[in-house]
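User: Fold both of these, please.

Assistant: Here is the first one.
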Amino acid sequence: MSSDRRRALQLATGSSRSRRVFRRQKRVNRFAQLSTGVLLISSGAGILVGLLQLPERLDTLLLVSNAIANLIGGAMRFGTGLLQLLAVLALVAVALAALVLLVAGLVRLGKAVMFPGSR
């Protein structure tokens, strides 16, 4: 074997050890995974409890009907109606975010309990 070919083979085999693909993955800290899951669930549940208390303080159906009436009412009240509709959309977005937090927390807790060594 020529020295150039031997050198090329040595470089190819030596460089594979330092590649990121062949490195061992770090073990997942089970306590961190459990605490993250509990934090996600508690924040999602807290937001949902806050949203459930909203109808006691304001009538949501009245808010939507006022928004539609203000939009129909004319150009003077267009800005007010648009802001009210955006407020309703913001409430829907917060409710969806709370549900996503709950599902993510449940999945994280399930993975931590079922598969303690995996990500």
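And the second sequence with its predicted structure:
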Amino acid sequence: MEERAVHVLASSVALVVALAAATPAPTPFPLGTLQPFGSSTPAPQVFPNIGRVRSVAPACAAMRDLIVPSYAAAQRSDVRFAETRKRLPNYAELVDNPLHVEDVYRQSALAKLDNDATKLLEEAQIIAKALGDPRLSAKSQDPDVLAERTALQQLYEGQMIRANLLSEFVIRQQAAIAKNGIDTSTTAFGGARTAARPSATDQPIPALTAPPGMPLLMGNELSDKQVMNQWSTEIAAVVYRYKNAAAKTFLPIAKRCSN
């Protein structure tokens, strides 16, 4: 089982590094600018199965016991966020639909996003726990261990950026639901007590700016779905850059451990 997990890590790290080598890096941009970036998917490189190594070197032990499960957690988060990216435009559609803006369907959709955010945070805590392990101490005299720690910190920061942004979005939407008078004390399909919807003349003018890192929804279904798609694409690009930087450090160390 351990060898299989390490092999999965090996293939994943090689794929990330291969992507970085074959694809021009996108021009960095801050979240919220909604600027596009390019991507492609070249064939992955072969990566050594470090799970079979018997080295007792500190860096190899840390790679096997701490880096492997941390990287696996990041991979699981990627899979989860891929589903989140499908949910976000669907949620925007419910928000903009007069038939669903204040019903249990919106609550249910937001609950799924909340679950996603919670899961992303849980996976990030696996990496945080590894960073707190004495085998990856910042006081280590082993340069490979220090390099692993720095790379793992990069991986953690990328995961937390994604988890925190999604969490903030969910919190803001929960506040908006409460402000609209939706009863959130019931289950998603157990019925809800809703307040009378304000008339069109009472509706506030949509804001022309959004908080830093948050998507700007203007009340138009088509454009808001595009905004949500672009927002999640930007987040994925940021996480990719952090993950790629970490993988570039992990790969040569893992190769040395396999020799």
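The two ends are 21 Å apart (CA to CA).
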